[in-house]
Model the fold of this input.
Amino acid sequence: MGKAPAKVPAKSPAKGKGAKGAPAGGKGKGLWVSFAILGIGAVFVLPATIVALGGFIPTIATMLTDKSRGRSMTVAVGSLNMTGVAYIVIQLFQKGMRMDYAMLLLQDPLNWFIMWGGTAIGLALLTLIPPVVAQVLTSISEYKLQKMKSNQAEIRKIWGEDVKG
Amino acid sequence: MAIFNERYTIDEMQPLPDFDTGTAKAYAVHGKISSSSGLMAYVVTGHMPTRVDALAGFHGLSHSSLSLVHEAHVIDWPLTGHRHMAIIYDMIKGARLAPLGDAPDFIHGPFPAIKETVLTEELIKPLGQAICQIAKMGLFHGSIRADNVFMGDGNAVKLGECLTAPSAYRQPAQYETPQRALASDIARGMGTSGDDFYAFGVLILTALMGDIPLRGLTPEAIVQLKIERGSYSALAGERRFSQATIELLRGLLTDDPALRWNHEDFEHWVAGRRLTPRQSTIAKKASRLLKFGNQDFVQLRQLLTAMSSDTKLAASMIANQELARWISHGFSDEKAIKNLDQAIATTRQQRLGSEEERLVSNVQLALDPLAPIRYRGISVYPSGLPALLAQMMLSEAQLTTIAEIIINRFPALWLEYQPDSKIGNSIVAVQLCEKAVDVVQNKSLGFGLERYMYDGNPSLPCLNPQIRDRYVQTPKQLLEAMERRAPLGGLQLIDRHIAAFLMAKDKNISLLLMQNIDQVRDMTRRNIGILNLYANLQERFGPDNLKNLAAVLLPLTEEAVKRFHNRPRQERVRKELKAAAATGRLSVLLNLVDDTDTVVLDAQEFVAAKMLYKEMENEAERLGEYAKNKKMLAEQAGQPLAAVISVGISFFIMLIILLRLFR
Done:
């Protein structure tokens, strides 16, 4: 069950519109659109672009190494990273989008902490939530399994061992 | 006291030993229906076939010299605790003409002879007229002999019973024609009125001589003498009688059945018309002797009779054409030569048994057609074969010879050689034998020699050892006997005797049912078959309550109950079976285990349950794998959830930032 989705993009990476590859491709496309907007912004708002480029380094790094299903790592890291970057970029806009202020912002470690701190929270969520979810699902499966075995025993009691076929 | 058909009471405390026969004992009878002379009953002592099937014919006879038979029934007999066939007769008044004796003569003697001067009036006329009446009704008495004739007061002579044993059983060889005397007494089968008149002739001689003629001789020696000299000369010897008596005796003792006196001849003689005295018809003699063993023979029938004593030598004599040359040169009998060739050809077509034995037997049949079938020491007429088989079954003798006689179709061959006058009497018996060729070869339950035996002996009780003493003659009696025997334990519900008996008596029992019972691999099918058989019999013949038999049949249902896969259903059926067994209704038992709808429903439900179980098995396997692979669960479910939460937090923070921005 878990193997098929991983295999589909591996076998046909070019077919982004494939049944199970579609969502991943769609999100990838969205990212590229984001990059395109940033590219255009780079022309008109160069200071903000420079700040954003610096701020999105963790997301870009994650995106390049992410092999998770549906690029959930990139989404988790990127969404919180984007929140931090957006906060700094908004400050830049409020100061008139000047290059010197952009440089000033980049020199302040607190701003880097704000921009990259979201990444850390995203990574923390990625580290903590999956084992908890796995444990919960395992428990549910084990409970179901027990119930299934009990039902089978009941069937054997009624129909005898021959019912096993 | 034994109640007979709720009309007579047979008094076991009042035996009448003077009237005992070799196969039955006589007792006094009290009853609502009485006759002027009183009643007596013959209680048959063994399990041999009787002739009660001929009772209706004899019941219709009315002659002062005949014991009037009333009816026959199976009774519970207090003296033995068993059931016996009992036949009610008018009481006989008088004493036996000759005392009852042992084999081979069966008549004890000497006894006071009757003078020729009074014999005609005292014995010949009344008894002869009685025998004429039997002959006119187309019946055969078969037991006309001196110990079965009773002389009463006032010259009242009475001929005794003839129904308690097979035809001509315990009839001395002297009283039988030279041909019939060759057969053992049990195997003589149905004779003709001519045979009765022959015995009447010997009876007259016995009465005149005060002893049985040729006393002490073996049956073989008696036959050889009769063949050699002719019956009259052999039996009468040098004794002199009046011309009328000689005429009568020569007429009655003529060896050629076509020339022997019949009832018309006898009535003419009684009326005083003198007939041409019959000369002894001695068989032709050859012009030269033929040596067989240590003996020289001039008569063909004597040689044929002697051949049975050394079949190996006889077969070589036939094979090397010595016999053919002797017949050809000695008798110039073309027909005999033709029959001999046919017998040799027939032997080649037969397959079962020793070829030498078959050859000799075929030649004897072809050249002495009136004689019985003689094969491997057995000498039997087709109509006597069933009774002989019954006797051999009872004595647990080896039966292969009987099977070979039937399968080699000796009875049909015997019939082929018979002159027309003899065919009518034996055709039914031969037809039965012909039908039995397949029956005997069929080894299935309900067939084989047992089936032929019950088909051929309508009065024979079922010989299953467990119920033999109950003298079972009908399916209903079989059920009653089984019910009575069941509490003693170890009841065998079916064997070859019970199966053959039922198949012979009840044409409604299907072959398929017997096949189900017969097969041994599928015990469920067999057991349901047995239950089906008894339930079917109970439904049709009763009685309604067979608790003991039901208790014996109950364990047999276990295999059938196990056919149901559903355990609660099994338990429910078991409980219901137990309750049904207590009621003694076998059909209820059968319906519980052989209800097709329930069996089909159970099978369908079982298939559905199997499929469900398989699905559960697959699901359980999947869940097991799922639960084992935590890493996969974390990746597939945990990481997307973390992403969703991240997006949610981001959205929340962005909302706060935007709210602060535009405040």
User: Anything to note?
Assistant: The first helix of chain B runs from residue 55 to 59. The domain at 2-270 of chain B is CATH 1.10.510.10 (Transferase(Phosphotransferase); domain 1).
